[in-house]
Amino acid sequence: MLPPSEFPILDNKAILKDALEKMSIYKLGIACIIDENKKFIGLITDGDVRRILLTIQKPLSALFMEDVLDHISKNPISISPEMSIYDATKLIGEKWVWDLPILSRKKELLGLFHLHRALDFCLDTY
Amino acid sequence: MPATSKKISIGYDKVKPIMIGKGLPLVFIGGPCAIESYDHSMYMAENIQKICVELNIDWVFKSCYDKDCRSSPDSYHGIGLQEGMKILSEIRNNFGVPVVSDFSDVNDGNSVGEVCDLVQIPAYLCRQTSILKTAAKTGRPVHLKKGQFMSPWNMKNSVKKLEINGCEQILLTERGTFYGYNMLVNDLTSLPIMSKTGYPVCYDATHSIQLPTSMGSISGGQREFIPGLVRSAVAIGINALFMEVHDNPVKALSDSNTVLDLKYLKQILNQAIQMHNTYLDIITKYGEDNVHKK
Known about the structure:
The complex is a heterodimer of chains A (126) and B (294).
Chain A: E1 9-11, H1 16-26, E2 30-34, E3 40-45, H2 46-55, H3 60-64, H4 85-95, E4 99-103, E5 109-114, H5 115-125
Parallel strand pairs in A: 1-2
Antiparallel strand pairs in A: 2-3, 4-5
Chain B: E1 7-10, E2 18-21, E3 27-31, H1 38-55, E4 59-62, H2 81-95, E5 99-102, H3 109-115, E6 118-121, H4 129-137, E7 142-145, H5 155-163, E8 170-174, E9 177-178, E10 184-185, H6 190-195, E11 201-204, H7 205-208, E12 210-211, E13 220-221, H8 226-236, E14 240-246, E15 260-261, H9 265-286
Parallel strand pairs in B: 3-4, 3-14, 4-5, 5-6, 6-7, 7-8, 8-11, 11-14, 14-15
Antiparallel strand pairs in B: 1-2, 9-10, 12-13
Helix pairs in contact in B: 1-2, 1-9, 4-5, 8-9
């Protein structure tokens, strides 16, 4: 699991440019959005950005200023901290995603389950 | 942020507050560009008031005490802060109407905020942090005009500057966009874009037809487009309409080529009110316009 300090997290007032910058800094294609109470409210991926570029034909400067909230997935697949690495890795394969946010019962963002980390673990273990 | 979800309230003390925002009747903001004299201001306020009462539209008297962005040093610069505020104050008292003036000098901010129900940021200064901060600190609602050089989405930055200084009552106005030199174009998509800030939006019909400094040392204008542009702006969705009005445009001391002749105000406001009511009916009946939702 990646702890919150090791993947992009944005507040709900962030603009799309903030998300792109943070993804680049962390070299991850995902950014999670939290509210004032640190509750998880959604995520945006570089796949979302690709789709935005193809469907919303605004000038780049206008897209940069868009509220990231307007483009997030509000109910993405997430996992609980109790889920095993095996099940989480299996879920990533089934759902064809790279990352799974790890949420507490109160919807607090505890971390991110990331495909590369899962692969590292599997290679070390087997 | 959904388009225009916030409402702003303009008016204090004896002036009954008027509301601008989503689903509310259209509000008119207007008057002579510059305060020319006590008598002229009273005459204009009285005549605009008559029309607005007849048409049952709330309005805000607009006139400026200082025209700091004139092209020529020889042009009329304004009546001055002290005299200007005195006249605006009398207009509030005599007509019970809220008043607005812009200010270009941070040192004037407090005095303007003490008198005016709404304080205005000139379009050319719409991103000046010190002006925005001063306007926010007056505690009055702020009329923020989009600079002719600004994109509507970048106005979010100016809005943030007001918000972080405590202002949550903002009216955003479109007033034309530079297209090369001495020319403005009207991109009405700026109105729904700026409304995404959540704040109400306004269309400034008389400055939008300006040809900036096209006459050498003064600005020209294409007044013939005012009526059509007003109808178009109302149809796309606005909460307030701004027009500078003068009883004798040729003799106006400021913006003589763009101010609307008072004799046309009633017919244009009438059209705008009817268009706005139709707009509200359509939106209520058939829903919002967004056809680009996921």
